[in-house]
Amino acid sequence: VTPVTPVTPVTPVTPVTPVTPGPPVVAVGSGLTVTASADQPAATLAPESAARVPFVKTILTASADGDVTVGSVTVERKGLADDSAFDALILLDEDGTQIGNSKTLNSDHKVIFNTAFTVKAGTSKVVTVSGNMVADNSTRAGQVARLAVVGVNAGSSAVNASFPLESNGMTINSTLDIGTVTMTIGSLDPGAANTKTVGTKGYYT
Known about the structure:
Elements: E1 31-36, E2 45-47, E3 53-62, E4 68-70, E5 72-80, E6 86-92, E7 110-113, E8 117-119, E9 124-133, E10 144-153, E11 158-160, E12 165-166, E13 170-173
């Protein structure tokens, strides 16, 4: 009788747990340079009810070694003017888009804009500090207000700047009228009370 050759047992293979890739690592820039733009808004009038009156234009430039996240920008009201002349202050980018929310001046005559934004590595971003004026500045007419960028926080990135970066003086005005638009429903509007049968065409809108 031919002996049976024993079968060698197969060692089971331990399955390899797949590695979930993490988010890509983005290099953080080592520095941010903040300077005043050469084409600052000229000294002019700031009429009551005026919105987005430009005061000071700054240029934020990130170092070439990585993106820089700006965590906050601090602005101070300077000059011979009352804080109450302003309804709010805002930041605008180079396209005129508002960055974050509008802010009111605190008891130290300052505003801290804390909506973070990013300046890409090796590029510059233009940011303008603008003011929205109150509707009645009759008691403050003739006052000359200035706004100044007095601080920028960029997290671990070093900030290179000579603060304050101060605007020209804007004279508060209460005699100029800001144009307004009144919207009314036209005579051909079908109105909410009218019946609009499904499928009927030719309604005025």
